[in-house]
Design a protein that fits this description.
The complex is a heterodimer of chains A (about 375) and B (about 350).
Chain A lengths: L3 E15 L8 E15 L3 E5 L6 H8 L7 E6 L3 H10 L12 H10 L6 H10 E4 L13 H11 L5 H14 L16 H13 L5 E5 L7 H18 L2 E6 L2 H7 L2 E6 L2 E7 H6 L4 H9 L42 H5 L5 E4 L2 E3 L19
Parallel strand pairs in A: 3-7, 3-8, 5-6, 6-7
Antiparallel strand pairs in A: 1-2, 1-4, 8-9, 9-11, 10-11
Helix pairs in contact in A: 2-3, 6-7, 7-8
Chain B lengths: L3 H6 L13 E12 L2 E13 L4 E5 L6 H8 L8 E4 L2 E4 L2 E2 L5 H7 L4 E4 L3 H4 L6 H12 L4 H14 L5 H4 L9 H13 L5 E5 L7 H18 L2 E6 L2 H7 L2 E6 L2 E7 H6 L4 H8 L48 E5 L2 E4 L2 H7 L1
Helix pairs in contact in B: 5-6, 6-8, 8-9
The chains are: A alpha/beta (about 375), B alpha/beta (about 350).
Chain lengths: ~375, ~350
């Protein structure tokens, strides 16, 4: 396998929201993502799929530190040696974080994006860029395309005025837009063109990792295909690593080399895309694939769909303990209510978090083994 | 209150009710007058539908699907929008010549519409039960208690558990799926003959989408209502509609029963759209696309509206509008290629 570009360990983020009562200060904690660990290899497209509200976007924002994680680590662009040093210094779980682990602590605070100072984080901002679901709302409507694209270059102090100008024209052409468009305002463009501008803005700093948060969900199918092809082409040309977030499994299938399925703030399954679709091991993945909308010409509703608990109220239950999917799972067992299933490597590179599976011989991914 | 009997037997004449289609639209045109010129959103849409039939209006955003529906219901501001048609008849009644008051008795009673964004169409200041009861009391002559009971019954029909309890919920307490179910409840409570559903499942997750599809099919079975289903999601339409009309730039470019449209698509736009859907069952290196964008409603191309994006464009397409060609019974396409297909 390739070099690991990004590694996330046990990332968690909890939001505190006010309960709806008008005059009370009752607060409630909502865990948006819980104990998420995964890694991105250089040059791959990693798909992240799940229903709305499962924490996909929170995860992407936490990786970028647009949101501050409560707990967990994010490492980016470490060399093999740095990783090995870090891993060998890492204390075994359960054996306190006492003073004997000073070396580990020092290394961790040096590399971990979630606890870095803003200043030392700054160079990383350039290397990790994001494109948003709704491009228009991410632009300042009073800036022209030229200014929108130049801003990141200015912030990071790249090149002279002339260089910047050249870079941005080059970038416009790369994403399939006319040079003249630099003079226009974002509202003069269609949705697909706006998304192209969003992509240009993300790529203008020549990042190593591109996070694409539902980049095609708001577009029509014909335009959607254009943007998917564009992202695929640019990834090859610029040797990018892409984290592609989508709720649409067919899109994930088209773009991703590996994919992770998320539910209720936890990762349920990680596998190479082909293996995930050919042999989904988690009941939730199976449900998602089976309920994906496909064109059916046969008469009426002859779906062989999953029967699962229909109570809409239970959709929103977020469990503190046990498997978060158990309310909808057809095969929930008593143990699912008590224990959080760990993400286990059931087949090579195929990780699943489900009690239903036989105890595998693989290793716990959470323990942070090096691929 | 104007009773519907007046409508059905007096002023507005009905001809041979048994033979008539439920809804008949001929050459519907909807245009906007703005300082920038006249924008034509609907450009001569014609179709008719029978009782209990589900017809799907498919097409990309901006193709005029929603405008067609809003024109049928006359829900557009009349000082800014001009609607004309050779025929726009519901149950033999001319919808365009009705007074506003007569129209109000049709809307929400005989023809109901379910909107795309349910949360935006529910009043946040009232419980869903109150809003449902209001709809019932507007259209039916029953007591408040009976109306409340009917509301609870309808809520349970659309899949609410403990409907007596949910009756007192405010819209913000509902999840997206539940809000959509509430909208559906509100639309079906009067047992309409025609339901217009505008992108009802688009904003929902796949699992919820399927629940809504099942629910709509169940409702059709129970009320035998006809439905106009507006969506850009061809997969969704394939699972529900009997007949499909593909819309592009304010026109129906192809209309056929579901089987024909998906098995033998004819119009290059239909084919392009079908090919650009990413497939879940196999990976392709390169997705097919339709280059370019939909024309804006102020500037249509001189000939066929699709001519600037069409992969099979011919000379005639660029300066002369095509007419409809009937490829097989009930399968029509608005395309010059049809001329060749029809003659050979």
């Amino acid at each position: 396998m390739n070099r690991i570009l990004l590694k996330a360990c046990n990332l968690s983020k909890t939001f505190t929201v006010k309960k709806s009562l008008f005059f009370s200060n009752r607060m409630e904690r909502v865990a948006a993502i819980r104990n998420i660990s995964f890694q991105l290899y250089q040059g791959e497209t990693f798909g992240l799929v799940g229903e709305s509200g499962c924490g996909k976007s929170t995860l992407s924002k936490t990786l970028l530190r647009l949101l501050k994680a409560d707990d967990g680590e994010v490492y980016f662009g470490l060399t093999q040696e740095q990783f090995l040093k870090l891993e060998s210094a890492r204390p075994l779980t359960g054996i306190g974080d006492g003073e004997e682990n000073q070396e580990y602590r020092a290394l961790r605070s040096q590399y971990n994006l979630t606890e870095m100072s803003e200043k030392s984080l700054f160079p990383y901002r350039r290397k990790i860029q994001i494109i948003f679901q709704n491009p228009y709302s991410s632009f300042n409507p009073r800036l022209r395309v030229r200014e929108i694209l130049e801003e990141p270059l200015l912030i990071h102090g790249v090149g002279s005025k002339q260089d910047r100008e050249e870079t941005l024209y080059e970038m416009l052409e790369k994403v399939g837009l006319n040079r003249d468009y630099a003079k226009r305002f974002p509202n003069e463009f269609s949705g697909g063109q706006q998304q192209r501008i969003g992509i240009a803005r993300a790529l203008i700093l020549n990042p190593e990792l591109l996070i694409a948060d539902e980049p095609v969900s708001s577009l029509d199918v014909s335009v959607q295909a254009q943007i998917i092809n564009l992202i695929n082409r640019i990834r090859r040309d610029m040797h990018l690593t892409v984290l592609f977030i989508s709720h649409d499994l067919s899109v994930i299938r088209q773009v991703a080399d590996r994919a992770a399925v998320m539910y209720g703030g936890r990762l349920m399954e990680i596998a190479p895309t082909e293996a995930l679709f050919a042999n989904p091991l988690h009941p939730y993945t199976d449900l998602l694939i089976k309920s994906a909308p496909v064109i059916r010409i046969g008469q009426g509703s002859d779906f062989s769909r999953w029967e699962y608990h229909h109570d809409p109220a239970r959709n929103e239950v977020v469990y503190e303990t046990g498997c978060s999917f158990r309310a909808k799972c057809r095969d929930a067992m008593p143990v699912c209510e008590q224990l959080i299933p760990g993400l286990l490597e059931v087949q090579p590179e195929h990780f699943v978090a489900c009690h239903r599976l036989p105890v595998p011989t693989g290793t716990l991914q959470n323990k942070g083994s090096l691929s | 209150m104007i009773s519907l009997t007046r409508l059905t037997n007096g002023t507005l004449k009905r001809t041979a009710p048994e033979m008539n289609p439920l809804l008949e639209i001929r050459n519907l045109q909807t245009s906007f007058h703005t300082p920038y010129g006249t924008g034509r959103a609907v450009n001569g849409v014609s179709f008719s539908m029978n009782k209990g039939e589900i017809i799907g209006l498919a097409g990309e955003s901006g193709s005029g699907k929603t405008m067609t529906a809003l024109s049928i219901l006359r829900l557009l501001p009349e000082n800014k929008v001009h609607i004309s048609a050779e025929a726009l008849r519901f149950n033999g009644l001319d919808l365009l010549s009705m007074t506003d008051e007569e129209m109000r008795m049709i809307r929400g009673h005989k023809i109901s519409m379910i909107f795309q964004d349910p949360v935006a169409f529910l009043n946040p200041a009232f419980t869903i039960g109150q809003q449902l009861t209001d709809t019932i009391l507007t259209h039916m002559k029953i007591s408040k208690q009976e109306a409340a009971a009917l509301a609870v019954e309808t809520l349970s029909k659309v899949g609410f558990t403990a409907p007596e309890h949910k009756f007192h919920y405010y819209p913000h307490q509902l999840s997206g799926g539940m809000a959509q179910r509430t909208m559906i409840a509100q639309a079906i409570v009067t047992r309409p003959q025609l339901l217009i559903a505008d992108e009802i499942a688009t904003s929902l997750d796949a699992t919820l989408q399927n629940q809504i599809i099942d629910l709509m099919l169940l409702i059709r079975q129970e009320l035998s209502s006809a439905m106009i289903l507006i969506t850009h999601n061809l997969a969704l339409i394939s699972q529900m509609a009997d007949r499909i009309a593909m819309m592009y730039a304010g026109e129906i470019v192809e209309i056929a029963d579901k089987e024909n449209l998906f098995r033998n698509p004819f119009h290059p736009y239909t084919i392009g759209l079908l090919e650009s859907i990413p497939r879940i069952d196999k990976k392709s290196e390169f997705l097919k696309t339709i280059p370019g964008n939909i024309p804006d409603i102020f500037h249509y191309p001189a000939g066929c509206n699709f001519s600037d994006r069409c992969p099979r464009v011919m000379e005639i397409c660029c300066h002369k509008k095509p007419g409809y060609y009937e490829l097989s019974p009930g399968h029509k396409a608005l395309c010059w290629l049809g001329e060749r297909a029809a003659t050979t």
